[in-house]
């Protein structure tokens, strides 16, 4: 016998060894870092196997002994709040609980510690069960049906305490994940409680609420304190979560035969059909108002996979719209608002039909066989709440699609309708013997619109045709499913189309001129979204600006030949004035300030640019101690600096950058800023370079972005823009990245690095500049003092002065940045425009919170 020592065998052996080592490592990790989770996981499976509960769940007697329920409490089984968490309802429940323990409980235990997880889990489980049972008794007052189901129900499962512990742990998490976990968990648990409505769903909801309340006493609050506002991006995500939850709820009710919640209006619609088509027609021939006739027609329409899917399609469509909301699409907002209005109208129709005697008391509208005012009005509340939320957050959804996107979408949907109509009519005529009545072309055309409507909304309309064989059933039941599915896909694709700009041709022209010409260190910001462009008559220069409250506010100097700057400034000023706007050049250099001063304009220094000249960078001496320490610590920790292109970065890297950025912005405790401060949208640019600090495990600890600075078509410098650091990562990541960028770019022959400006912050002693200026400029000196006071006031919130102090570690050259304007009397309007440019989405409420935060610090 020979031994196969081929490379394939060796590779298989090596792969098996690696898998074995990884499995052993996972086991060691679990025992060492999550012992409680491992013990509970093993206990659950051992008890399930010992009691024969793994497949079909606990027996009736065992469930009465260990399950949470009113009967168990009444029999004195006081241990049920804890024992109910150690079993599951069936094999799927055991698998689901195991996934939750491994994916949620184990990381929580590692973060919180075993003792705190035990306290959080036990507290939320016990209180969740007690509150859930209390609710079961209380709810009978206004919903006897749901209250009865809760009263006789029994609950087992570990999901309640895991959800409660997660909510408790969120108390000291970073702002981003705290908000997402809380909103997502509450949206899910509320949806399950209201639509599915089982006792376990109610207990899970109360456990989540208890965890939310007691978390601060178990793990403490986040050291970052209260927040003023999240980012616009995060606001869109949270609204999308709520809308998605409102769409998932009806799906849960429709697909769950045990759904008993107050919003489970579809629970009776998906049952077996006790009659054939012929029997139903015979019943209806005798009496069209016979309840058996109406019920038979309803159940014939709703039986089968096709009608079930068609009834779910509106909810699936709303799920697609929620993705558009996540992307900030205006069309998604409009469509979702329309969908909620339709649901409100249907809810009102439900009420009218039941209580204004539009039909008899045996109506099956919405499938509710025991109608009352409460169960009719409750479904009205969900779309009403979502509609109010959408209206209140409409400012988040301002992203427009490229021109003609929705014109093409409309044409595609019309074409889809035409094709499906031809297929339905043609197929119906070919399969005409498959219907209970002989169809005609006119009859099929008239019936086609009903095939697109979910059958739950057709209960008051007698069907013209009913299918009796496979071919006709496919046409009858699946035409609407195909329509909704393709329409949802077309809408989803429309959300993927790139966002339109005000004038794509002008933006591309400006970018080309900048790359081929000369600009200031901030000139690349003129290519950002939100700018409009003015081009000089000779086409040699351009000015990027935005009109806010009647002020034409520019971004930096005019871009073009330096000897044409004066002509560009004068030309733009005339253009703005002719349109009734107030011209204001913002964040301009000394060269532009000199020109505007000669024109009789006023000016203020609004920032201090820090420039690091390259050529002999060494970071030696005592002055660079912090920088050298960062470089040395990074080397010892295995952290390196890597250049990346953000649009082409690996998905794993981009996901980390997005998470770090959202966390950083949210934790600043302020509305998201823009204008000359770039974010994630601005780094998605082929010309922008990114430098990241990564360790050996490819964990990103910090990220910076660098904007190119052109002179006569050649990159001579780079400007720092985007700076984000992982809150719990390598602390001196920014010092390390900036120093690494300087060393790397110096090797490439770059002349300088601009560390950009710090708004409302200047170096000490710079204010003395105004003391020796002539009397004509004393107004500017006074305004400088006002800005200095404003900078000190906003420092606790925005930290601009701290940012300038941080950049001083690199011993840069300081270059003042100015704001110049023709009329000093326009300063209030200009100040308003600058504020709105930096904070485009701030609301009045956020403004008051900002003031309270400043005054309270």
From TrEMBL:
InterPro entries: LPG_synthase_C, PG_lysyltransferase. It is a multi-pass membrane protein. It is found in: Cell membrane. Residues 517-818 form the Phosphatidylglycerol lysyltransferase C-terminal domain. It comes from the Bacteria. The keyword Cell membrane applies. The keyword Ligase does not apply. Signal peptide: none annotated. Keywords: Cell membrane, Membrane, Transmembrane, Transmembrane helix. Its main location: membrane. GO terms for molecular function: aminoacyltransferase activity. This is Hypothetical membrane protein. It comes from Rhodococcus erythropolis (strain PR4 / NBRC 100887).
